[in-house]
Amino acid sequence: xxxxxxxxxxxxxxxxAGRPLNMTQLLNLFDPLEKVGxxxxxxxxxxxxxxxxxxEIELKxxxxxxxxxxxxxxxxxxxxxxxxxxxxxxxxxxxxxxAIAYRQPITRAEIEELRGVRLSGHIMRTLMERNWIEVxxxxxxxxxxxxxxxxxxxxxxxxxxxxxxxxxxGEFASPDDAPAAAPPGSGSPDASDGAGERVAGLFDGGSGxxxxxxxxx
Length: 217
Hints:
Blueprint: H1 6-17, H2 23-27, H3 38-52, E1 57-62, E2 65-70, H4 72-78, H5 91-103, H6 108-115, H7 121-129, E3 133-138, E4 146-150, H8 152-157, H9 195-200
Antiparallel strand pairs: 1-2, 3-4
């Protein structure tokens, strides 16, 4: 059997996987006798990135590795097709996710303080089921409440390589009400000042008009 072309095999794997692939997974595509190392894989990735330049497809590095995705006009057009339409989430869910992303590690009570409303158990279950958040510890206060943080799947879904890639909340809110400006529990703005809604806008693709927060448990 002839040895496969490194670039073509890497491209086929990324197109077929439908999710990010890391370096270990890409190297596992090759037989040890083929002696394909990280340098060859990185070169193949670089070739693909250059080949996709100016096209409606792009190679993107995220926390979980590399993935091939649509971009530009194609992404907008594909969204018109039911199969490719991204799921729609409530504004309340996106605000809660933004609070966790920017203030992690954070407790449920601190999320409620930040948003100014009770946090529905349905929202937390949805975020956990999608593996966008996880329990990362417990605060050493009475009751030892769980501390929540984001996951690698969260970063992959939103196209982030690291948490530092999150846009500055100051780009979307005034310095007085930017949610990332102070630690949890230190006079966070409530929902009435609109800060939570602006920060939720960082995560594009939220719910349409009129979608309500799920009823509290």
